[in-house]
Amino acid sequence: LSTQRTVVTLTGPGGRVVAEVADDLVTGCRLPLATEVRWREVEVEVPAADPAFQQAVAGVLLAAGARPAGHQSKLARVLDS
After folding, report:
1. Contacts with 36 (C-beta within 8 Å, 6 or more apart), sequence order
2. Which partner from 9, 20, 29, 75 sits 20 to 30 angstroms from 49, CA to CA?
């Protein structure tokens, strides 16, 4: 399991961090079949809960074509492949 991560920090007024967006390119290989799977994940973390902001971010991502992961972890996704 390998992840290449790009992180962008979003700031608001006064330079306050409002969110951190992690864009992961994930590659996994399930042994003994050695079948490689690749996918991309975007995670958004906020330092303080703000339901309206979180819903707005989710709406933008979904409108851009994102969809829920469907797995609890990257490892679970590889093992299910």
Report:
1. 27, 28, 29
2. 75
Average pLDDT over residues 14-33: 90
Residues with Cβ within 8 Å of 71's Cβ and at least 6 positions away in sequence, in order, are: 77, 80
Predicted model pTM? 0.78
Would you tell me how many other CB atoms lie within 10 Å of the CB of residue 45?
A: 10
Query: Over the chain, what HEC string results?
Result: CEEEEEEEEEECHHHCEEEEEEEEEEEEEECCCCEEEEEEEEEEECCCCCHHHHHHHHHHHHHCCCCCCCCCCHHHHHHHC
35-45 and 17-30 beta bridge pairing: antiparallel
Residue 65: both structure tokens together: 């074509």
The amino acid at 52: A
